[in-house]
Specification:
This protein is α+β, with helices and mostly antiparallel strands. The protein folds into two domains: 151 residues, Jelly Rolls, CATH 2.60.120; 79 residues, Arc Repressor Mutant, subunit A (Orthogonal Bundle). Helix content is 40%, strand content 19%. The protein contains eight helices and eleven strands. The strands form three sheets. The chain has a four-stranded antiparallel β-sheet with strand order 1-8-3-6. Strands 2-7-4-5 form a four-stranded antiparallel β-sheet. It has a three-stranded antiparallel β-sheet with strand order 9-11-10. The radius of gyration is 18 Å and the shape is globular. The two termini are 23 Å apart.
Length: 249
């Protein structure tokens, strides 16, 4: 708890995620100006909502620690998962056009959030060109990742979907400077199944096969990648491809 509290209280300048989140390309003075508008509140607890569908849009949310699931419900009441967001990701940008949130966002673990009031952020962006570019970059990332996820569901088989999901998560941790061959993943297998358009039984079967083949072990919240090359090959990724393929946030 002490370690998380220290990270949570860090300024933008001292945050270990500064090269991933908004401050990319900003100098010290610009980061200080951004830090002045950031609101840091108590961490969300597991299953606590960050926002709900229909809520008025007023802020973007940068994740400092933890995992957030973004989801909605079909007309028949079935859950539709749109993404899992990790530290360094920004949540809520999809509400810019409608000025209200279309989806629900819930913490899957104890999660620290930086709240960025959008009116103040927009005003600051007019004075800091790099910040304006970063907002546009985040919007572009949302569009691209949504299209790649659709492609994943239509063009990949079940084994490839699971392998690509696990590798993409590992690659996201790698890009943040964390251990990526062994990491904690607070996402339920049934949520992975929903996100990938599979049944929980199919996910369990494939994970058991990956374990037996000594490629990946994913038990409870702990993931261990034993054979990176085999995992990447199963996902259909080229050896030189070292970027996240789609959002598993």
């Amino acid at each position: 708890m002490t370690e998380m509290k220290t990270a949570f209280n860090a300024s933008c300048l001292n945050c270990g995620l500064q090269k991933i989140c908004f401050p990319t390309g900003l100098d010290k003075d610009e980061m200080d100006r951004l830090d002045a508008i950031v609101q840091r509140k108590a961490p969300l607890q597991k299953n606590q909502a960050l926002f709900s569908a229909g809520d008025k849009f007023s802020s973007l949310y940068a994740i400092r620690a933890g995992v957030v699931k973004v989801f909605s419900f079909s007309d028949s009441g079935e859950e539709i998962i749109h993404g899992f967001y990790l530290p360094g990701d920004v949540v809520g940008i999809d509400a810019l056009s409608s000025k209200k949130h279309l989806f629900n966002a819930t913490a899957l673990d104890v999660t620290s959030i930086c709240t960025l009031p959008f009116e103040e952020l927009s005003e600051l962006s007019t004075k800091i060109p790099h910040l304006s570019s970063q907002v546009l970059s985040i919007m572009s990332k949302e569009v691209v990742e949504g299209r790649l996820h659709s492609e994943l569901l239509t063009k990949k088989n079940a084994d490839q979907r699971i392998a690509q999901f696990i590798w993409s998560m590992a690659d996201r941790y790698r890009s943040r400077g964390y251990h990526y061959l062994e990491f904690r993943l607070s996402i339920l297998h049934r949520d992975v199944a929903t996100y990938l358009g599979l049944t929980p039984e199919t996910v369990s079967r494939i994970l058991a096969k990956l374990h037996n083949d000594k490629i990946v072990t994913w038990k409870k919240k702990e993931v261990s990648i034993h054979n990176e090359a085999a995992l990447r090959g199963l996902a259909g990724l080229a050896e030189s491809d070292l970027i996240s393929c789609y959002k598993v946030v």
